[in-house]
């Protein structure tokens, strides 16, 4: 079996590369240019691989990345939603386009530096579950990757912790080409999505009223695309109590705000489900994460046509439409993931 190891030049992918080599696997390193190709970066990563005596390849996928990740990111904001480009990138690029290129180069599987676990389950088959490092777990971002593509993946870091990986590399005297942590959204400079969207000339909505649920105007917003459900800071409203973004009325161009008591949500509607475990195998006790930093919460899930109705056991702050809802069983095996359409 030949394994392509996706390398970015950072610590995690370097450790994945090194540990698979030490285990005696037939491997080669593969770097994808998702942004405009950088000769300097390619040469630095190539030199790192050469020092380890590992074959290195680079592929230019920046046009496909623009089409599959960047354009949908901009479109979602135009429609008043808050996208999750990292989850979309995993599904369409890292385990889509990059896997395709790896197979062209003779690979049977692709290994990455994701903190998640892939194991065989007696009922579910090959399954995805949370990484053992709670601060780095990326199972949430992988829940949109189709099962057939995940079955061709290897995650050497799944049962590791970040500090242990750094220590092991230091012990070996091996340093990554780019040791700094990657920024939150790789294609958005300084993590400033507002500036990025404006720089791209995206046709974004104009300002309008901020209103309470009863229609009382309490201020003006600067365009619905700049706000997220549950947001408190940055509203610029002087009111007798703190106000939060309750929802965005796209038809009327109104930002509905209200006190915290009105903020709580009883559930959400989820579409475009990617089933990693067949629905008839789902356990009765289910948990979800509707945002990355959230601990899994208990829910009840019912299926209606092509959507899931997720009801929380206890009311929660509303998730943003466009974000990922990742469904787990009690063992924290990922059963599937979908896109949040709205809170209920």
Automatic annotation (TrEMBL):
Residues 206-258 form the tRNA-specific 2-thiouridylase MnmA-like central domain. Keywords: ATP-binding, Cytoplasm, Disulfide bond, Nucleotide-binding, RNA-binding, Transferase, tRNA processing, tRNA-binding. Disulfide bonds join 89-186. GO terms for molecular function: ATP binding; tRNA binding; tRNA-uridine 2-sulfurtransferase activity. GO terms for biological process: tRNA wobble position uridine thiolation. The record marks 114, 323 as: Interaction with tRNA. Coiled coil: none annotated. The keyword GTP-binding does not apply. Catalyzes the 2-thiolation of uridine at the wobble position (U34) of tRNA, leading to the formation of s(2)U34. Belongs to the MnmA/TRMU family. This is tRNA-specific 2-thiouridylase MnmA.
